[in-house]
Amino acid sequence: MRLLTTLLITASLLCLNLQARADDAENPYATAYKPLELRARILPPETPEPQIYKGSGDKDADYQRMLEQGFDLLGYSSFEAGEVPAEKLMEHAKAVNAHLVLVTSQRSGDVPASIKIDQLRKKAREQNTDTIDLDMLDQSSVRYAYHASYWVKLAPPLIGLHVRPPAKEEKEPGLIVVAVINNSPADKALLQELDVIKSIGDVVLESPEALTKAAQRYAGQTVEVVYMRQGAINKTTMTLNRAY
Question: What is the mean pLDDT of residues 201-223?
Fold first, then answer.
């Protein structure tokens, strides 16, 4: 009896696992999803459902704009497929708790007719019919390149900088500014994209972790910031937000 119960439980779990995989296979946004790690505090969503907008087609510009508006990237999906219903995107956006999604689709090519006919034959068999609707051939043979980025709104930052360490060919030490969040302490201190931040207060910025250390040490205080812009060393003061 115990063995039978174990087998039934195992079979049930296997069915659930297969069903989950089938659900993912039916939604290419879920199958292709690449999550990213977020450490910042996330605000509650402003709307009951994720907001979905069409991207500009310039992914880098879209990402830059979202970072400046105080959002951070939760993850993204990139794939090629035929027509994918918009409901699939909303379904996955809800599943990952995104606040906002930017999506683009661009025609990438056509599926060879031989492959598409095989797909139509398979669909006909699933519908228990021998009839192939050739009118569907032209309609469904087009493929598109999809890219969806999933965003969440962050709590007001202590500093308001998105940074990266220098690449191997970039010999200047410090942290390179990727984006400055609008109306943040860094924005009010007039720091800009591509500035190289050398230090905040007594903290020398040799890694992104050092920026976190500076934010925690000087929260709510006014400190000196040393940075390089276009080859010249500059200094400014910045008043950090208080910790929450």
Answer: 95
Structural domains of the chain sorted by starting position, each given as residue range(s) with its CATH number in brackets: 29-153 (no CATH), 161-239 (2.30.42.10)
In 3D space, the residue among 14, 96, 147 whose CA is nearest the CA of residue 22 turns out to be 14
| Distance of alpha carbon 1 from the chain centroid | 49
Segment 21-25 mean pLDDT: 44
Q: What is the token pair recorded at 162?
A: 């998105």
- What are the structure tokens assigned to 11, written together? 């079979």
How does pLDDT run across 132-172, given as a tens digit for each residue?
Answer: 555 555 555 688 999 999 999 999 999 999 999 998 888 78
Residue type, 59: K
Half-sphere exposure of 194 (CA within 13 A, CB side): 4
| Residues 240 and 218: beta-carbon distance below 8 Å | yes
Q: Is the dihedral of CA 23, 35, 81, 58 positive or negative?
A: positive
Helices (H) then strands (E): counts for the chain: 8, 11
pTM: 0.74
Token pair 């400046």 is at which residue?
68
CA pair distance 9, 50, nearest whole angstrom: 36
pLDDT at 122: 72
Concatenating the DSSP letter of every residue in 106-168 gives EEEEE--HHHHHHHHHHHHHHTT-----THHHHHH-EEEEEEEEEEEEBPPPSS-EEEEPPPT
What's the chain's average pLDDT? Answer: 85
The amino acid sitting at 206 is E
